[in-house]
Specification:
Blueprint: H1 2-29, E1 30-31, E2 33-39, E3 49-54, E4 60-64, E5 70-72, E6 76-77, E7 79-86, E8 93-100, E9 106-112, H2 117-127, H3 131-135, E10 138-139, E11 148-151, H4 153-158, H5 166-170, E12 177-179, E13 190-192, E14 202-205, E15 208-210, E16 229-235, E17 252-257, E18 265-273, E19 277-285, E20 296-307, E21 316-330, E22 333-346, H6 356-362, E23 383-400, E24 403-421, E25 449-469, E26 472-493, E27 498-499, E28 505-523, E29 528-546, E30 561-582, E31 585-596, E32 610-612, E33 617-629, E34 633-645, E35 649-653, E36 656-663, E37 667-682, E38 685-698, E39 702-703, E40 706-707, E41 721-730, E42 734-743, E43 746-748, E44 761-763, E45 766-776, E46 787-793, E47 801-805, E48 820-823, E49 828-837
Parallel strand pairs: 2-9, 14-17, 32-36
Antiparallel strand pairs: 1-6, 2-5, 3-4, 3-7, 7-8, 10-11, 11-16, 12-13, 14-15, 16-17, 18-19, 18-49, 19-20, 20-21, 21-22, 22-23, 23-24, 24-25, 25-26, 26-27, 26-28, 28-29, 29-30, 30-31, 31-33, 33-34, 34-37, 35-36, 37-38, 38-41, 39-40, 41-42, 42-45, 43-44, 45-46, 46-49, 47-48
Length: 842
C-alpha cells in the first residue's frame, strides 16, 4: 500500500499543484455584472431578463431581475461583453463594449423605454401572477406611493360609451362623480372628489398640465375626447415634487394618449344612439415602417359627431382630428409628436339649468324652446363655438451611466366664443319681454344678450433629468409656461347682434409660470423605497383692464385702460415611502403639499385698485394605504386627511376706502376611507367594487377674529359616501359589463343672496347604471379589431336632481318654482359597428 502511495505521490502532487494554480488564476480573472433595470422616468422594472454575451467567445449568460429591478450575474471570465435587458411591453436596451475584470466589476443601469402607465399595469399584473389584476377594469399599482387608480384601455374601449369624454371614462373610479345633464359626452361636465371641485386638481395629457388662465377651471370636454385616450392614471393626492402643473392641489387626472402599435390597422366606425346622436370615426395605425429598422410609427384619428342632445334643442356638433408620430433614432433616442384639433359647436345657454316650473310645464328634459322669441331661452339667441388645438414634441434620450433626458415643448389654444340671451328688466328689475325696444342700450334698461369671449394661447416646456443607480433614483427638472389671454363680455341686442359701446368687462393678461423641482427616490432596501423632494411654484400675472360700463372696473376716470400685476410663490415639499411586504403586497405612506393661485378676477373691483393680494391657497395632504394582488383577487385601500385653505374674502382697505384688500377665508378638512377590489370568479367572469366613506367640512371656528358662520358645515358637492359595483365577462371575442355608481346624499350652497351660503340645499342620493356588450375580432384575422358594440347609459332611466341653485333666501330651505335644477340625463342606447382591416403579419 505504501509502495503504491509512493508510486503515485509525485504525479498526484504535480496534478494537485496544477489544479490549484489554475483555480488561482481563474479566481483572479473572475468578473461580474450587476445593476438595475428601470424605465425612463426612473421606476424600477421588476422581473426583467438580462442577457450577458461575451463578445470574444459568444458565450451567453442569462439572469433575471428581482422584484425591485436589481440583477447580478454569476462569476464570469474577464473580458468584453454585450448586455441586453428586456421586459414585457418595453423596448430592448443594449450596451456593447462593457469591459469587466475581477478588479473592475461592471455595475450598470439599464433604462428601458416605456410607452405609458398602461405598460406598467400590464407588466405588474403579469409579474404578480394575479389573474384578477389582468382582468380588472381599473386597479392600483404595487409601486404606488399615494392613492392611485389606473383606468386601462380595455375599460375605455369596451366599458364606456363611444360618445364619452374623459369624465365618463373616470365615472366609476373611487369617490369621483361627474354629471352631464345633456347626455354622455354632450356638454361641459364637471367632476368632484374628496371635496375638490373642478379647478382644484390637475388635468394632464401625456404629462402636460392643462388649465384655463383666468381661473384653474377646466373646459377639457373641448380638448380630449375618448377617441384620443389610451388610459388614465388617477392620483388622488398632490403628488410628489415632480408632479407638475398649476393645481396639483387635490390630485391629478393624468390622461394618456393611445399606444403606438407595431402592426398596421385601419378602423372605420359608425355609431348611432339616442337623441339622434351620430358618430363617424376613422383611425389608422401605420405600424412600424421605414427601412430595415422600421423606426417610424404613425397613429391618426378623425371623427365627426352630431347630436340633438337630451336637453331640448341643446344641439352639439364636433369635428376633430389627432395625429401621433414616433421616430426611434435608436433604442435610447426616441422622438414623439402629437397634434389634436377640435371644432365644437353647441346651443348651450348660460344658465345653470331649467327651473322647476319649466320642468313641470314642458317635461323633464326641457332647456330651450323655439316658439317664443321674447324669452331668453329662445334657442336662436344661444350659441357656443369652441375651436381648440393641442400640440407637443417629446424627446427622450439615455445619456449613459444611468442618466436620462426627457424634454417636451408644447403649445395649445382655446377660443370660447359664446353668445347668450338674458331676460331684460325694467327700472324696478321686473322681467319684460325681449323686443327691439327693450333690448336697446337705453339708460335704466339692460341690453338683453351677452357677447362673450374667453381665449388664450399657451407655450410651455417640461424638461427633466433622472439618474438611476444602485442606491436609488435622482430626478430634477422644471416646468415653464407662458400664456396670453383675451376675455370680454359685451352687452348686445340678440335680435340684431349689435354690441353696446362699452363692455361689462374687457381684459388682456399674460402669465408666466415656473416650477423647478428636485427629488430623490432612495432604495433603502430591496423592499423599502423612500422618496423626498421639493418644488418651488412661482407665477406672475400682468393685466390690462379696459374701461367698462361699471359692471367691473368702471370708467377709470376717463383712461382707456389700467395695468396691474401680481406674483405668487409657494414652497411645496413632499415625502413618501413604499414598503413591499411581499412581492404581491405593498404598503405606502405620504405627506404632500399643493397650491392654487388666485384667479385674475381678484382685480375685478372698482378702479382695479388692490392693495393686498390674496395668498395662494394651500393644501397639506396625509394618506396611507395598501395594495394587494392575489391570484384571484386584488385589493387597494387607503385613508386620507387633507387640510386646505378656503377661498379668500375681500374688503375695503381701511387706509384707502377706494381700494380692496384680501384675506384668507378659513380652512376646510377632508378625511375618509377608500377601498377598491376586483375578484376573478370563473373563466373570464370578474366582480369589481369600490366604495368611499368620508366628510369634507369647514374647520376654522373664527376668521380674522370673527366667529365663522360656516364652521362644521359641509363643503358643497361632497357626498358622505359613494359606491361602484361592476360585473364583467371578458373572453377572446366577447366583453360584457354592467356597472352601477351610487352617489350618497350631499349639500349644495345657497349662493350670495341667501342668509346662509353654505350647507343650504340638501341633495338626495342618486345612482346610474350602465350596460355594455362588445364582440371583437382579435389578432390573427384580416379583420383584426372589427367590433360590434352595444351600450346603454342610465339603464333604468333614473331621473333625479344632482344639483340646485335656489331662489329661496331664508332658512330652512323650501323648494321654489324658480329653483334651477341640474338633472341626470335620461336613458341613452347606442349601437356601434367598427370595421378593422389589418394585413396578415409576417
Amino acid at each position: 500500500m505504501r509502495g503504491i502511495f509512493r508510486k503515485f505521490a509525485a504525479p498526484l502532487s504535480v496534478a494537485a499543484l496544477a489544479v490549484l494554480s489554475t483555480a488561482a488564476v481563474l479566481a483572479q480573472q473572475a468578473a461580474s455584472v450587476s445593476g438595475t433595470v428601470a424605465d425612463t422616468v426612473g421606476t424600477a422594472i421588476p422581473h426583467s431578463i438580462v442577457v450577458i454575451k461575451n463578445e470574444s467567445t459568444n458565450a451567453v449568460t442569462k439572469v433575471s431581475g428581482d422584484n425591485v429591478g436589481h440583477f447580478a450575474s454569476p462569476s464570469l471570465p474577464a473580458g468584453t461583453y454585450t448586455i441586453e435587458a428586456s421586459a414585457p411591453n418595453f423596448a430592448l436596451t443594449t450596451k456593447k463594449g462593457v469591459v469587466v475584470s475581477a478588479d473592475h466589476p461592471a455595475e450598470l443601469t439599464m433604462v428601458l423605454n416605456i410607452g405609458s402607465v398602461t405598460d406598467q399595469i400590464t407588466v405588474e399584473a403579469s409579474s404578480s401572477n394575479s389573474i384578477a389584476a389582468q382582468y380588472a377594469p381599473m386597479d392600483g399599482l404595487l409601486e404606488a406611493r399615494s392613492a392611485r387608480t389606473e383606468v386601462n384601455s380595455a375599460f375605455i374601449q369596451n366599458f364606456s360609451s363611444p360618445f364619452s369624454d374623459y369624465t365618463e371614462v373616470m365615472q366609476m373610479t373611487p369617490g369621483l362623480f361627474s354629471i352631464n345633464s345633456n347626455g354622455v359626452g354632450l356638454g361641459d361636465a364637471k367632476m368632484y372628489f374628496r371635496g375638490f371641485s373642478d379647478g382644484l386638481y390637475d388635468i394632464t395629457f401625456d404629462g402636460i398640465p392643462w388649465n384655463d388662465t383666468n381661473t384653474p377651471s377646466h373646459h377639457s370636454w373641448a380638448f380630449f375626447p375618448s377617441q384620443w385616450l389610451g388610459s388614465v392614471d388617477f392620483d388622488r393626492s398632490p403628488g410628489t415634487a415632480s408632479t407638475l402643473g398649476p393645481t396639483p392641489f387635490g390630485g391629478s387626472i393624468n390622461l394618456l394618449s393611445k399606444e403606438m402599435t407595431p402592426a398596421r390597422n385601419l378602423r372605420l366606425g359608425m355609431s348611432y344612439g339616442s337623441f339622434n346622436t351620430i358618430l363617424g370615426d376613422g383611425q389608422f395605425d401605420s405600424g412600424n415602417f421605414g427601412g430595415k429598422k422600421k423606426s417610424n410609427n404613425l397613429l391618426v384619428d378623425v371623427h365627426h359627431m352630431t347630436s340633438d342632445g337630451f336637453q331640448t334643442l341643446n344641439r352639439q356638433t364636433r369635428n376633430a382630428g389627432s395625429l401621433k408620430y414616433q421616430y426611434k433614432f435608436s433604442d435610447t433616442k426616441v422622438l414623439t409628436g402629437f397634434a389634436g384639433v377640435i371644432r365644437l359647436n353647441a346651443n348651450t345657454p348660460n344658465i345653470k339649468g331649467p327651473t322647476r316650473a319649466q320642468i313641470a310645464q314642458f317635461g323633464y328634459n326641457y332647456l330651450l324652446q323655439n316658439t317664443d322669441p321674447t324669452q331668453q331661452n329662445y334657442q336662436a339667441y344661444n350659441t357656443y363655438w369652441v375651436p381648440t388645438d393641442f400640440e407637443y414634441v417629446g424627446y427622450k434620450q439615455q445619456l449613459g451611466k444611468g442618466w436620462a433626458l426627457d424634454t417636451k415643448p408644447y403649445t395649445y389654444s382655446y377660443y370660447n366664443a359664446q353668445y347668450y340671451a338674458t331676460q331684460p328688466t325694467d327700472k324696478n328689475k321686473n322681467p319684460i319681454p325681449i323686443n327691439p325696444t327693450n333690448c336697446a342700450p337705453v339708460k335704466g334698461i339692460r341690453t338683453c344678450a351677452v357677447d362673450k369671449l374667453n381665449s388664450y394661447r399657451k407655450y410651455g416646456e417640461i424638461t427633466s433629468l433622472s439618474q438611476v443607480s444602485k442606491y436609488g433614483i435622482f430626478r430634477a427638472g422644471m416646468w415653464y409656461e407662458w400664456a396670453a389671454t383675451d376675455r370680454f363680455q359685451i352687452p348686445s341686442d340678440p335680435i340684431t347682434h349689435t354690441d353696446d359701446v362699452l363692455p361689462n368687462f374687457h381684459e388682456k393678461f399674460w402669465t408666466n409660470s415656473y416650477q423647478p423641482f428636485a427629488e430623490y427616490e432612495w432604495h433603502a432596501t430591496n423592499r423599502l423605497n423612500v422618496t423626498a423632494g421639493f418644488k418651488w411654484a412661482h407665477y406672475n400675472q400682468s393685466l390690462k383692464q379696459y374701461a367698462d360700463n361699471g359692471n367691473t372696473v368702471g370708467s377709470l376716470n376717463g383712461a382707456a385702460f389700467v395695468t396691474n400685476s401680481g406674483s405668487y410663490n409657494s414652497y411645496l415639499p413632499s415625502v413618501d415611502a413604499n414598503y413591499r411586504i411581499k412581492p404581491n403586497w405593498s404598503v405606502y405612506g405620504q405627506y404632500s403639499t399643493g397650491s392654487v393661485i388666485p384667479p385674475s378676477s381678484v382685480f375685478d373691483v372698482t378702479g382695479s385698485v388692490v392693495t393686498k393680494l390674496p395668498k395662494p391657497t394651500g393644501a397639506n395632504s396625509y394618506q396611507g394605504g395598501t395594495v394587494l394582488k392575489l391570484s384571484r383577487a386584488t385589493l387597494n385601500a387607503d385613508y386620507f386627511y387633507i387640510n386646505f385653505e378656503n377661498v379668500y374674502t375681500s374688503s375695503a382697505d381701511p387706509n384707502n376706502p377706494s381700494a380692496t384688500s384680501y384675506l384668507q377665508g378659513g380652512n376646510s378638512a377632508a378625511k375618509g376611507f377608500e377601498g377598491e377590489a376586483n375578484v376573478y370568479l370563473y373563466k373570464g367572469l370578474s366582480l369589481y367594487a369600490n366604495g368611499t366613506v368620508g366628510s369634507s367640512k369647514y374647520v376654522s371656528q373664527t376668521i380674522n377674529g370673527v366667529a365663522n358662520p360656516n364652521y362644521d358645515k359641509w363643503v358643497a358637492s361632497t357626498p358622505g359616501d359613494t359606491e361602484s359595483l361592476g360585473l364583467t365577462y371578458q373572453q377572446k371575442y366577447l366583453d360584457l359589463g354592467i356597472f352601477n355608481k351610487r352617489i350618497g346624499s350631499m349639500w349644495n350652497d345657497g349662493g350670495k343672496k341667501t342668509s346662509v351660503i353654505n350647507q343650504y340645499v340638501p341633495i338626495d342620493a342618486f345612482n346610474m347604471t350602465n350596460l355594455f356588450v362588445n364582440f371583437t375580432v382579435r389578432k390573427g384575422s384580416f379583420f383584426d379589431q372589427s367590433k360590434l358594440r352595444f351600450s346603454v347609459n342610465n339603464l333604468f332611466d333614473t331621473r333625479q336632481i344632482t344639483s340646485l341653485t335656489p331662489v329661496s333666501t331664508t332658512l330652512p330651505y323650501t323648494p321654489n318654482s324658480g329653483d334651477q335644477l341640474g338633472l341626470l340625463a335620461g336613458r341613452s342606447v347606442t349601437v356601434s359597428f367598427v370595421i378593422g382591416l389589418s394585413p396578415h403579419h409576417e
